[in-house]
């Protein structure tokens, strides 16, 4: 008698467990208690579409309490597109409290674009300070000036989709600093009037095409760096010296080559002299045979030659620098 009752009770418990697991009854009750009507079959359809009902209903309750007038279809379509529904609703509530015009479609587009729409709304209310790294620039007098700036920006919600980010702002500010310092006559002008950099950078309209609106640019630090002009002149002088040394070495090598060439010519001429002198004994012998030269004449020539050699030997003994003939 009790066995069928136990089976029915167990079956009822199982059915209720499955029902409460698959159908978020408590979430449906919470929505009704908050004044938001969500049909029970709508919640079941969310389960079938693999949508977590709590991620749709809870933001819908917040939106209803804030008076945004959003529909469940808008939130569910944004969830299915891969967006963060809770963050979008929080951004819309924050924008409404701050009197910032922001529609659900634009907020959803910003969220799907990968930007934090809630942070953008918060930045619109509370501007953010971006600090640039130390930017080095060289004035016309060759002195390096290092400048660090702080840029106060406010998010421009209308340009969040497709607008450039913080990196572009930092790059443009750095470009403006380099331009301003580079156009200064001396580095003292920059040190005396650092606000000149701020005015020049602001006049360029650096926030064009970005997701931010620049409110102010303040120079945080200005330091004097190296004397780049003197270093460049020193390096140029060193390069000129090396070029001059190379040309001098080239001329020396050419002179050495010419000297060797002249020595070779001297040796060649000496060889010709020796060759010519070798013809003298032959000519004398021919003259003796033909009777054109007597024996006495020949002996006088020999005596003259011996006397010349003796004088040469004496000259070398007194002056060793003279070469030997």
Topology record:
Blueprint: H1 2-22, H2 25-33, H3 40-48, H4 54-66, H5 72-80, H6 85-97, H7 104-112, H8 117-125, E1 128-131, E2 135-138, E3 143-155, H9 166-183, H10 187-192, H11 195-203, E4 212-227, H12 228-290, H13 295-318
Antiparallel strand pairs: 1-3, 2-3, 3-4
Helix pairs in contact: 4-5, 4-6, 6-7, 6-8, 9-11
Keywords: Cell membrane, Coiled coil, Membrane, Transmembrane, Transmembrane helix
Subcellular location: Cell membrane; Membrane raft
Transmembrane segments: 27-46
Describe what you observe in this structure:
It is a single chain. With 325 residues, the protein is an alpha+beta fold. 65% of the residues lie in helices and 11% in strands. The protein folds into 2 domains: 2-125, no CATH class; 127-275, 2-Layer Sandwich (Tetrahydropterin Synthase, Chain A). It has helices at residues 2-22, 25-33, 40-48, 54-66, 72-80, 85-97, 104-112, 117-125, 166-183, 187-192, 195-203, 228-290, 295-318; strands at 128-131, 135-138, 143-155, 212-227. Strands 1, 2, 3 and 4 form a 4-stranded antiparallel beta sheet that branches.
Note the beta-strand portion. 5-15%
Strand segment count: 4
User: What is the CATH architecture annotation of the largest domain?
Assistant: 2-Layer Sandwich
- CATH topology tier name of the largest domain: Tetrahydropterin Synthase, Chain A
| Average pLDDT number | 80
CATH class of the largest domain, please?
Alpha Beta
- Secondary structure category: alpha+beta
Total count of domains: 2
CATH superfamily of the largest domain: Band 7 domain
Q: What is the rounded Rg?
A: 52 Å
């Amino acid at each position: 008698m009790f066995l069928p009752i136990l089976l029915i009770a167990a079956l009822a418990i199982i059915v209720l467990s499955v029902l409460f697991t698959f159908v978020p009854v408590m979430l449906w009750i919470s929505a009704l208690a908050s004044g938001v009507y969500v049909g029970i079959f709508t919640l079941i359809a969310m389960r079938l579409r693999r949508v977590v009902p709590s991620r749709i209903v809870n933001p819908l309750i917040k939106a209803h309490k804030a008076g945004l007038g959003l529909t469940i279809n808008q939130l569910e379509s944004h969830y299915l597109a891969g967006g963060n529904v809770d963050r979008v609703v929080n951004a819309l509530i924050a924008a409404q409290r701050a009197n910032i015009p922001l529609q659900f479609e634009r907020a959803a587009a910003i969220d799907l674009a990968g930007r934090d729409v809630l942070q953008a709304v918060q930045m619109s209310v509370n501007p953010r300070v971006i600090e640039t790294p130390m930017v080095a620039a060289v004035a016309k007098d060759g002195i390096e000036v290092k400048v660090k700036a702080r840029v106060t920006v406010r998010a421009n919600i209308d340009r969040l989709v497709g607008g450039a980010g913080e990196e572009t702002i930092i790059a443009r500010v750095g470009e403006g600093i380099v331009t301003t310092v580079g156009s200064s006559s001396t580095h003292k002008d920059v040190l005396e009037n650092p606000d000149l950099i701020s005015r020049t950078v602001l006049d360029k309209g650096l926030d064009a095409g970005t997701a931010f609106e620049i409110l102010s640019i303040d120079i945080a630090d200005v330091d004097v760096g190296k004397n780049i002009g003197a270093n460049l002149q020193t390096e140029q002088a060193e390069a000129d010296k090396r070029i001059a040394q190379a040309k001098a070495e080239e001329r020396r090598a050419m002179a050495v080559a010419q000297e060797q060439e002249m020595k070779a010519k001297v040796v060649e001429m000496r060889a010709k002299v020796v060759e010519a002198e070798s013809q003298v004994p032959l000519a004398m012998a021919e003259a003796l045979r033909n009777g054109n030269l007597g024996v006495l004449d020949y002996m006088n020539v020999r005596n003259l030659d011996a006397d010349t050699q003796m004088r040469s030997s004496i000259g070398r003994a007194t002056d060793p620098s003279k070469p030997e003939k």
